[in-house]
Amino acid sequence: MLDYSQVGVFIFLTALIGFLTYMNCRKADQGSASSDHDYFLANGGLSWYFIAGSITLTNLSTDQLVGANGNQMLLVALWELAAVVGLGILAFVFLPIYYRNQCTTTTELLQKKYGDKHIRALISLLFLFGNIFIFLPVVLYSGSLFMQSLTGTDLPLVLIASCFAVVGALYAILGGLRAVAVSDTYSGVLLLAMALIVTYLALNAIDFDLSGIPAERLTLIGDNNSEIPWHTLLTGMAFIQMFYWSTNQVITQRAMAAPNIREAQKGVMAAAFIRLMIVPVIITIPGIVAFKLYGDINDEAYGRIVSEVLPPYLSGAFAAALAAAVLTSFNSILNASAALYVCDIHEAYFKKIKNVPAFSGIICASLAAFAIILVPVYATRESLFTTIQTLFGLLSMPILSAFIVCLVFNNVNAKAAIIGVITGVAFYAFFIFDWEPFHYIHGMAITLVLCITVALLANRLLFGQKASLAFGRASTG
After folding, report:
1. Which residues contact 63 (CB under 8 A, 6 or more apart)?
2. Which value, to the nearest 10 degrees, does the dihedral of the CA atoms of residues 349, 428, 280, 375 take?
3. Which of the ends of the chain has fewer CB neighbours closer than 10 A, N or C?
4. What is the mean pLDDT of each run of 10 residues along the chain (477 residues)?
5. Cα distance between residue 34 and residue 46, in whole Å
């Protein structure tokens, strides 16, 4: 159980992060935003260090620390190393296009390129599906599981998750994107520092001796039966990273909220540096050490090792850092989901919203409540990290295909792209649930090629339009 020093440190650091965030944001009146672009992009006022901090912590939360360490092998570091490439693509390929087109959401680019609001709405619905059914409940579940493991409490996971959801929703509703990004940065500094301390103390607990751990858990070259076979790096991995870092509203919303493209690119590349130098170590080594000490305990590994190696006053600090990470990741997804629904669906098909902050608050509260209901579903999964990656393939490659088709080709009918997207969702669902003759990452690459091929064939055969390569014109916005 938590002792008084843990509780005291936890309360102090949590309050300090809140106070620093308030001091930074008090001059920004989110409610006075004159447009959706102003409200959802913090009036274009995020400096590069807040962009870097927010991108880092939005991705690096308990679902990453708990889920990746739960695999208890070095191989999952490949996701982070490949992410550096994805962030580079965001900085130098997609961000210039988003800024030239003055996009509030990534999906707005689709409407401007295809000249059709329906494909924008469809892709937004797919993003919302992923946020609602995968990422929101996963963040709550993983954060609650960690707190349960760290403190040894008997409180039900759903109750802990509900506390996170209520506080997180209030934070998103009252603070907006600026508050989320600022608190992300402060929390991120604390979290990265604590995670590095945990990694060092975990290694110290085994005298820096990794002997006795199976070789397959210490390699970066996966065989055919591993979580990430080496050959998947040549097929779907690059496209997964391109999708996640360059088209995902939850991530790109921070980079699109800078005062200019230069500031945005600085923030993204700073996030890439953190991803390269720090993240691979902290998401793998503690889990590997936990395997040596406790055996194969899956998603309980990280909470168990933290509770064992940290003294009480530091475990209280780490609990505060992880709680902040859970809240800010949850906030980020809520805020991005509200932006997608308001801009891409409600205002496009119903009516213009007069009070965007208030209406967005209703959306955030509803999504938070639904996420709580889904938490028990993920408690039954053996590997949280693999579950997330596998399920998101239902959406990622079909969504990415819509962006690739509109940027690489001219004269493509939006309905043809929609047919490609729907075909891809159906094919990947069949692939992972009924067939799966090979690794799901290969399946993602095949799904992407299928989506693009179907879109181009439908464009020619059903709509009588012949696509042509855009070449350099794709980047002119």
Report:
1. 135, 138, 139, 142, 143, 329, 384, 385, 388
2. 60
3. N
4. 66 82 67 56 84 86 79 91 94 95 92 95 94 88 79 82 86 71 83 92 94 91 86 89 92 91 96 94 94 88 86 80 81 88 92 85 92 84 66 89 96 97 95 85 94 97 93 49
5. 17
Q: Is 42 left (phi over 0), alpha (psi -120 to 50) or beta?
A: left
Residue from 196, 122, 53 nearest 348 by CA:
122
Which tokens sit at 398? 């079909």
Instruction: Give dist(CA 287, CA 202) in Å, integer.
Output: 9
The pTM (predicted TM-score) of the whole model is 0.85
Tokens representing residue 270 in the block: 């700073």
- Residue 472 pLDDT: 52
CA–CA distance from 180 to each of 22, 291, 361 (Å)?
A: 11, 35, 14
- Three-class SS of the chain: CCCHHHHHHHHHHHHHHHHHHHHHHCCCCHHHCCCHHHHHCHHHCCCHHHHHHHHHHHHCCHHHHHHHHHCCCHHHHHHHHHHHHHHHHHHHHHHHHHHHCCCCCHHHHHHHHHCCHHHHHHHHHHHHHHHHHHHHHHHHHHHHHHHHHHHCCCCCHHHHHHHHHHHHHHHHHHHHHHHHHHHHHHHHHHHHHHHHHHHHHHHHHCCCCCCCCCHHHCCCCECCCCCCEHHHHHCHHHHHHHHHHHCCHHHHHHHCCCCCHHHHHHHHHHHHHHHHHCHHHHCCHHHHHHHHHHCCCHHHHHHHHHHHHCCHHHHHHHHHHHHHHHHHHHHHHHHHHHHHHHHHHHHHHCCCCCCHHHHHHHHHHHHHHHHHHHHHHHCCCCCHHHHHHHHHHHHHHHHHHHHHHHHHEECCCHHHHHHHHHHHHHHHHHHHHHHCCCCHHHHHHHHHHHHHHHHHHHHHHCCCCCCEECHHHHHCC
- Closest alpha carbon to 235 in 393, 432, 123, 387: 393
